[in-house]
User: Fold this.
Amino acid sequence: MAKKIEKNDLKDSKKIADIEPAKKYDDGEFLTTNHGLRINDNQNSLKSGERGGTLIEDFILREKIHHFDHERIPERIVHARGSAAHGFFELYKPIGQYTKARLFNETGVKTPVFVRFSTVAGSRGSTDLARDVRGFAVKFYTEEGNYDIVGNNIPVFFIQDAMKFPDLIHAVKPEPHNEIPQAGSAHDTFWDFISLMPESMHMIMWAMSDRAIPRSLRMMEGFGVHTFRFINNEGASHFVKFHWKPLLGVHSVVWDEAQKISGKNADFHRQDLWEAIESGAFPEWELGVQIVPEADEHKFEFDLLDPTKIIPEELVAVQRIGKMTLNRNPDNFFAETEQVAFNPGHLIPGIDITNDPLLQGRLFSYVDTQLSRLGSHNFQEIPINRPVSPVHNNQRDGHMRQTINTGRVSYEPNTLGGGCPFQAKASEGGFTSFPERIDSHKIRTRSKSFLDHFSQAKLFFNSQSDAEKSHIIDALCFELGKVQTLAIRERVLILLSRVDIGLAAAVAVYLGISIPKNQGIQLNGSFPADADPATYQSAEVKSSLERSEALSMENTIKNTILTRRVAVLVADGVDEKSLNDMKSALEAEGGVVDLVAPKLGPLSAEDNTEFSITKSFLTTASVLYDAVYVPGGTNSVATLAAEPDALHFLNEAFKHCKPIAADTAALQVLDETYFSRKLPKVFTEKEVMMTGIAMGDDVKQLSGLFIKAIARHRFWDREKPGKVPA
Ligand code: HDE
Assistant:
């Protein structure tokens, strides 16, 4: 009778390491070549004489340079720019009625995860703050194998069918003749494509909203986007959509700020994630699921398989089933963040895919792209990609194979290997695909149920606050303002007018053009002559919901200042009490405080206490902070009031609607700002809560107001009326 394999392949390969003779001598200190030779001189190449040519015989130099020559691998074709962290997932309560996945059935277990966030369009070295969708890819290392939710921070997508993905990406990437612009969609080819793809309108609303310029990777939602399936022990299926809800709320920066951050610190998000984890302020998200019984598949006014649609939370509530915590930064960016390979086809028993035609296409793509990026099918053996569950199969060899398989049997069925490894029955944890009934014609088309392209775009726009709506309009003015081709702008205006006529009109006024008349006719006429109108024309559907609260960031969590960065503007002679009282109050709530001064080095306070200054107006900027405080102190105040960089810092913070607080003794500094002329000089609590500007003698009391204001994030009411030149 066949017996089970006792040891897995990786353990077998360790046997070699145990007997490795070098181990005996290794004190870990000496520099060596890759074949273990200790290097005696790492400064000079081998030459024919002191001033002679380098000898080809110098195998040490050659090895070093050859390795260096090959240090780069192709970057991801999309999502090249990314940052990642390790952590764990913990389930709140088992949901066995929906899925048999052990991950979602065992509480008290910390399932390890590795999460990579990314932008989509930019290259590896591009700015974090591009207006773009953010990737949100989670790898769960479960006992049943790796499970990946390879999602985004926006719950819908530009296109409905994988067939259009290369076109979309070609359109958004830098234009091929001159490789301009980097990491941005504000150019002709992107909008040309969009203007011909009405199905993109819902996603365009999200991408033009503040969701596309997050304040932090820790302050954005994540979505699985597609509808997936849960399968329970009885084999019953439920449809499921995945949501990641950040416990710090969903917050963004403003577009002007995003562009400036790109220059001041292109690694803004990467650094923010890194520093939060290093400081112990671990980012957390709750995992939410929207469950739809199989019987309700056709109950909605949209198709569950259409990835340009959400299930509004008002229709199906999001149940929070667990929490993910990121608590460890990678040890090595390349080995982990760069080499990690996600795949929506990495499933575990109890979770399965649906016929969403975008998801189906993704299933072909990911392994294929890993092959060109990581070079061989053995990328699964790279430590970051290895499952924690054992791997036994008859796949062998290939470039860079790590596993040393023992024995002579690499086929199945066999008797020589005792029959191992065996197939697992479903009851033994074997994966079985959901036996969905298929009875149809082979056909290349789009389902009619996918042809509503505007109702959810409208729902999204209508659900936004006034400030959010005006940001969408501003973003469209910016993007289309960069488009050179008039006909493209006009076609986009036609599509926008079908989302909201006021929105389209506002953009048209800015562009100085009018929305073309006879919209219906022009819309059809603008599509390729050979296009199937059934595919390109949209049916008019009205959403039964007017608004969805969950779609507006205005309704997010606003009760914490944990990890918010506050700049305290100081110069020699600062009042140490005014500074320290505020600093400790902010830090007690988890705020991060930086002293920013005209120059670096030690700074002496009014009572000669010394403060160490690590940030100056030259090395930092207001766009890198969430709020600003100006303490008192006669000399400090006089210096700052006469320092244009300090005034710029404050004016710019005001422009970006950030909370500003000042000790009354620092009034002179505020008096010099452009915005102070626009504000009343009395700062009541009510006014502070409306404007975010606080001032007072009692710093303890002031800090209370300031903290509440920082937690509110931004004060949009003053954005348009309080516009300042900064
Ligand atoms: Fe991806 N996508 N994608 N995608 N995707 C990749 O795989 C692809 C789509 C997403 O941090 C690539 O390893 C196709 C939707 C994330 O490593 C590639 C289609 C969503 C990441 C690929 C889509 C995503 C990728 C490039 C349409 C949200 C980064 C490098 C059919 C649900 C993962 C790689 C990471 C990466 C293909 C559409 C999310 C080329 C063909 C929709 C977060 O395989």
In short: The first helix runs from residue 9 to 19. The CA atoms of residues 610 and 627 lie 24 Å apart. Residues 76-79, 82, 116, 118, 135, 137, 150-152, 157, 162, 165, 225, 340-342, 358, 361-362, 365-366, 369-370 surround HDE (CB under 6 Å).
